[in-house]
Design brief:
Helix content is 33%, strand content 24%. It is an alpha+beta fold and 576 residues long. It folds into three domains: 193 residues, 2-Layer Sandwich (Heat Shock Protein 90), CATH 3.30.565; 112 residues, Ribosomal Protein S5, domain 2 (2-Layer Sandwich); 246 residues, MutL, C-terminal domain, dimerisation subdomain (formyl-coa transferase, domain 3, 2-Layer Sandwich). The strands form seven sheets. The protein has an eight-stranded mixed β-sheet with strand order 5-4-3-6-2-1-7-8, with helices on one face. It has a five-stranded mixed β-sheet with strand order 9-10-15-12-13, sandwiched between helices. Helix 1 packs across helix 5. It is elongated and about 90 Å long. The chain starts with 7 loop residues before the first helix and ends with a helix.
Length: 576
């Protein structure tokens, strides 16, 4: 087949396939145009899942009469006109492809009027070609009606799902944008019936109430955080650990108020909940990340569902730290008890987690300061402190857990996680004071590193040295280890360095590298499960844990203690 230029009609259909996948794509493009137009009310009407009809009505600033026809030409837009604006896109739409792509695969009617004009203008198009146009009376704003979607592409239409499934996608989109634009009143009509309405009063929690319902909305925690170095900000809501779902679809992310899908952001939120959720349970979250427009590429995906960040690791840590801060302040100690009215026997009951009596108030908190190369503070240390309850040591269970009694019942303390927390805070404090505790080796220890380990060592050289390691190159892939952190005590120093490098490489993909190194050192130096402790040793460990800024989780996010309430034990023994 010879090389030739595609016909304009065929090229338009191919281009439309990149923008318009299904009725929800039409809704997305039209609603985003309405938002860019400054609308305060947006109504979306669909029939038969949007295949038969999609109509979006807004009260925005409208389109000048003489520009309506131009708006349906490919690459026509009012939102950018220079390379500089393309590098820092501040609007939801910008490519000038939405209207021509929609019109190319449907029958489209647009009616628009600017507020100061006495009359409006109407234009009808069929498969992208104008059919009629002229003056028409209408309220200020714009209404776009799209019908017979993919009527000229039956092969595309047969790939659509059922009407109810397509309706669900539209509902998801409208509700998500109601969360991030609480000042806009969204209304969704499905087959003539009102399906969703947001208050549009500018109160974020009331928008949350409209989307998730009262039970979930009241259990959501306000999140506010900022990275002082980059200016990246995170605002929104994250669910309390007791509020979970079976999949990730309830985590919603916006970047500069653009709804995006990002595995990295999902992982950041899951990392913040580490140690607080049961296996295969996922949190609810609705978060907006505000970053300079030039630091994000919104033009990397045909339908703009995905974006690219200039500093992905900083975005990750901004989100993870902001969510973790509010969780640490709100729910420090997991409590083991069955749900109300449960008839489970005592052996099963402890698998059900409820909020502890020691939980804090559900208030948003500012995100803690960052640990840079010379700056101090850690995520946990800067969070509002929830003190550990005074505990009396009772004994040791399975050479792993310290059994203790408190005012509100019994506590099991993980001796490794507790000691890890104590060591982590001690290491960070000494580093802040620029007094790393280093232990010189009587004889330098040779260490053979893999290329990956060598790269991790060089990448984290400054942090490792700040925490007490001293080493020097000793041939290809080899180093001489001359000193280790003092907390390591006895043991194989070479193995200690290798363990720290491996842990740093594994977790360094998702955490601030200084915190990762400190956490890795603390983990390696902490008391191991299986070690017998004397009563004075257990008492000393609990006293040290109580003195830390965040005694309820280890630096990796796992809980240091679990609470069995007195009421639960009395109920299980038939005393209640």
């Amino acid at each position: 087949m010879p090389i030739k230029v595609l016909s304009p009609d065929l090229a338009a259909k191919i281009a439309a396939g990149e923008v318009v996948e299904r009725p929800a794509s039409v809704v997305k493009e039209l609603v985003e145009n309405s938002i860019d137009a400054g609308a305060s009310q947006i109504t979306v009407e669909i029939k038969a899942g949007g295949v038969e009809q999609v109509k979006v009505i807004d009260d925005g600033h409208g389109i000048p009469t003489e520009e309506v026809a131009i708006a349906f030409q490919r690459h026509a837009t009012s939102k950018i006109d220079s390379q500089e604006q393309l590098n820092a896109i501040a609007t939801l739409g910008f490519r000038g492809e939405a209207l021509p792509s929609i019109a190319a695969v449907s029958r489209t009617v647009i009616t628009t009027r600017q507020p100061l004009n006495p009359g409006g203008f109407r234009m009808e198009l069929l498969w992208g070609e104008p059919v009629s146009s002229g003056s028409q009376g209408c309220p200020p704003g714009t209404a776009v009606e799209v019908s017979d979607l993919f009527g000229n592409l039956p092969a595309r239409r047969k790939f659509l799902r059922s009407a109810s499934a397509e309706t669900s996608r539209v509902q998801e989109f409208v509700s998500r944008y109601a969360l991030v634009f609480p000042g806009i009143r969204f209304r969704l009509m499905v087959d003539g019936r009102a399906s969703f309405t947001s208050p549009g009063n500018g109160v974020p929690r009331e928008a949350l109430l409209a989307v998730y319902g009262p039970q979930a909305a009241t259990a959501m925690l306000e999140v506010h955080g900022e990275d002082p170095e980059t200016g990246y900000q995170v605002d929104g809501f994250a669910g309390a650990p007791s509020l979970t779902r079976a999949n990730r679809t309830y985590m919603t992310f916006f970047v500069n108020r653009r709804w995006v899908q990002s595995r990295m952001l999902s992982f950041a939120v899951e990392e913040a909940y580490m140690g607080l959720l049961q296996v295969k349970r996922y949190p609810l979250a609705a978060l907006n990340i505000s970053i300079p427009y030039e630091d994000v590429d919104v033009n990397s995906h045909p339908s703009k569902r995905e974006v690219r960040f200039r500093e992905e690791s900083r975005v990750f840590s901004t989100v993870q730290r902001a969510v973790r801060a509010v969780l640490v302040a709100d729910s420090p100690v997991p409590s083991l008890a069955p749900p109300p009215g449960s008839d489970f026997p005592p052996a099963v009951a402890p698998s059900f987690f409820t909020r502890s009596a020691f939980g804090g108030a559900r208030n948003g908190v500012g995100m803690p300061g960052y640990r840079g190369g010379d700056s101090g503070g850690t995520t946990d240390a800067a969070a509002p402190r929830q003190p550990a309850p005074p505990l009396r040591v009772v004994g040791q269970l399975k050479l792993t857990y310290i059994v203790a009694e408190g005012a509100e019942g019994m506590f099991l303390v993980d001796q490794h996680a507790a000691h890890e927390r104590v060591l982590f805070d001690r290491i960070c404090q000494k580093t802040l004071e620029q007094e790393p505790q280093s232990q010189p080796l009587l004889e330098p220890a040779p260490v053979e590193l893999t290329p990956a380990q060598g790269d991790t060592l060089e990448t984290n050289r400054e942090a490792l040295e700040n925490y007490g390691f001293q080493f020097e190159p000793f041939g290809d892939g080899s180093y001489l280890l001359r000193a280790v952190p003092a907390i390591f005590g006895e043991g194989d120093p070479a193995k200690a360095l290798l363990d720290v490098l491996d842990m740093t490489a594994f977790e360094g993909l998702v955490r601030q590298k200084e915190d990762v190194t400190a956490a890795s050192i603390a983990c390696h130096g902490a008391i191991r499960a299986g070690k017998s402790l004397t009563e004075p040793e257990m008492v000393a460990l609990l006293e040290q844990l109580e003195a830390t800024p965040n005694p309820h989780t280890c630096p990796h996010g796992r809980p240091t203690m679990v609470h069995f309430s007195s009421q639960h034990m009395e109920r299980e023994f038939g005393r209640r």
